[in-house]
Amino acid sequence: MAYELDETMTAASAAGRGRYTPSETTFGRSDRNLRLRTLVRLRWLAVAGQTATVIAVALILDFPLPLVQAGILIAALAAANLMLSSWFPPTHRLGPRSALALLAFDLLQMAFLLFITGGLANPFAPLICVPVIISFASQPLRHAIVLISLALVATTVLAFSPYDVPWYPDQTLRIQPAIELGIWCAIVSMMLFAAFYVYRVSHEATLLSDALAATDWCWSARSIFRSSTGWRPPQPMNSAHRLPPSPWLPRRWNAALPMTSATAKTCSFCAARASGAAISFAGSHRFRWKARSI
Known about the structure:
Blueprint: E1 2-5, H1 11-16, E2 34-35, H2 36-60, H3 67-87, E3 93-94, H4 96-115, H5 130-138, H6 141-158, H7 177-229, H8 251-255, H9 261-275, H10 277-280, E4 289-292
Antiparallel strand pairs: 1-4, 2-3
Helix pairs in contact: 2-3, 3-4, 4-5, 4-6, 5-6, 5-7, 6-7, 7-9
């Protein structure tokens, strides 16, 4: 006698038992969607930091600074933040394209602000790496590569800024081309290393989350299958039906494994899916679980 568990299982029966169906479970993609509240808070922090820096340089240190242009750039970032907060709920999650557009806006705003305040000679030039790091930590790889390409172009343009670094009125701070080349190499290498490191850490965390979600789904599906069909695995007649320990499961789970070859297939299926969740579940939305009694 054969039983099949497929996506044809009704959502009502799953919801009634506090479970979920395969169509309601996503692996890898939704977890990497950036929450709008997180990005808005980071941008308010950037607005506060840029405002404090401009005020300190222009009023406290009394350095000549293009206040109008800097004020317009900072106000644009604050206005964009206000519009996002009013148009979307705080719990809204940004899709990859939306997050890429917002992070690209932040990167260009920072690049323009650095461009009118000395370019790479500005001591705050390494902050141009921040949107890139956020992108590699929370976005798909192809979108993050687009943003880091834009950042590399912006960093190169900053090397040719015609504006001087804000300094004392009676002095001019000149940066030698060799120093600017060294600053450019330092920023680019830091950007590439930080992006690779953050992406690897985030990717491994996503794999672990997918494995746990796959294991949870498999055991939930098994419970729904047994409760909806009334099927129970037959008891073994002798010790020959006992299952060998599974290398994928904890020791306490091996001790509790059912004793039939039908459930052996089920547990092997669960373990294989859990151990390779990123490969087996990332692009798969339809699969079947078969259990046959002997």
